[in-house]
Write a structure and sequence with these properties.
This protein has about 350 residues and is an alpha/beta fold. It is globular and about 60 Å long. It starts with a strand and ends in a 19-residue tail after the last helix.
């Protein structure tokens, strides 16, 4: 197989930077305060948004309403670390008439009502349609819950119904338990128990494979042989384009399908010079064998929690040995996974 056909994306996010105030245990993109602050340039952002403008689909409720898997969102990292850039790309999206736009945030910046209201109002007036507020016990280690509550409350005042709380289970649980301030994850487990984690979406990929592996049953590598990642890598919804121009599908951090600054070039992805990507769309066994035979990869004795764990662990090992695979990008992703 030397070619991968990609459908046009109809929803997605623009990663302004991987830099974040938090280093969350579950982060799929290995975002961190230690990540370089390589913010997307205004020129690249405009090039990308112009090409997405006629592809992005509005929410079923209309172009001024938002939905997780519709429209366009601005994300990171934490986009509010560079508010001026966030405001600029919002204005670009409005000028291009991109529907159902929203920003994802962890609310660290919501230090008081005035600051929160002023920033959200400025974004709304610049054309942003809504906000997604992240809520989970991993983020709670870094962001006091009262700031999250403030983002939700004032977000509702500014954007009306266009506020998504992700995830609502944790939001209501934290309120019921009367949480204030930040809380270490171990303290959260002692207070709330582990049962609640089974009721929410917790994707076993990225940093979660290493920092949350004890929450999952593990399997030998061969358990995932015969599986491929073709469906994830060709998914047209909720794709991401990062600040380096990498086209990322299926939440697959650290895998670039190509340069999204020229989306037309990605309708057919040439796999002849991308052996890692070719293995992923064929059979995970091939990726495992590539890692073992050419780079001395050794199977984890403890096993793997998912096919994504096997995939990222082999990729991390290869990325530590060589920079010859351009599909393993951004390379800094592999430095912040916390794998031993």
């Amino acid at each position: 197989m030397d070619e991968l056909l990609l459908p046009e994306p109809f929803s997605g996010g623009l990663i302004l930077s991987y830099k974040c105030n938090s280093h969350c245990r579950h982060c799929m993109y290995a975002c961190s305060p230690r990540f370089k602050g390589d913010w997307i340039s205004e020129r690249d952002a405009e090039r990308i948004l112009v090409q997405l403008a006629d592809k992005v689909r509005e929410s079923p409720l209309g172009p001024d309403r938002i939905g997780v898997n519709y429209g366009l969102h601005f994300t990171g990292g934490e986009p509010f670390l560079n508010f001026d850039l966030l405001l600029k790309v919002t204005e670009m999206a409005r000028g291009l008439r991109i529907p159902s736009t929203f920003v994802e945030t962890n609310s660290f910046w919501c230090i008081n009502d005035d600051v929160t209201r002023d920033k959200l109002t400025e974004l709304r007036d610049a054309g942003l349609h809504g906000i997604l507020v992240s809520v989970n016990p991993f983020l709670l280690e870094y962001v006091p819950f009262e700031r999250t509550e403030r983002a939700v409350r004032i977000g509702g005042e500014v954007f009306g119904e266009n506020v998504i709380v992700y995830q609502t289970f944790f939001y209501h649980q934290f309120k019921r338990l009367g949480f204030r301030g930040s809380l270490l994850f171990d303290e959260y487990l002692r207070t709330a128990g582990i049962e609640g984690l089974s009721y929410v979406e917790l994707l076993p990929m990225g940093r979660a494979c290493y920092r949350l592996g004890d929450l999952y049953r593990k399997y030998p590598a061969e358990r995932f042989f015969g599986e491929s990642c073709r469906a994830e890598l060709t998914r047209p919804w909720h794709i991401h384009i990062d600040n380096y121009g990498n086209y990322i599908a299926g939440y697959c951090g650290g895998i670039s399908l190509g340069d999204a600054r020229d989306l037309s070039s990605l309708r057919k992805v040439d796999l002849s010079d991308k052996p890692v990507l070719r293995a992923l769309v064929t059979d995970l066994r091939r990726l495992y064998e590539l890692g073992v035979e050419e780079f001395g990869y050794k199977e984890r004795k403890a096993g793997y929690i998912s096919k994504c764990h096997l995939c990222v662990d082999v990729r991390r090992h290869i990325a530590q040995q060589t920079d010859m695979f351009k599909e393993l990008s951004p390379r800094e992703f592999y430095l912040h996974l916390d794998g031993e």
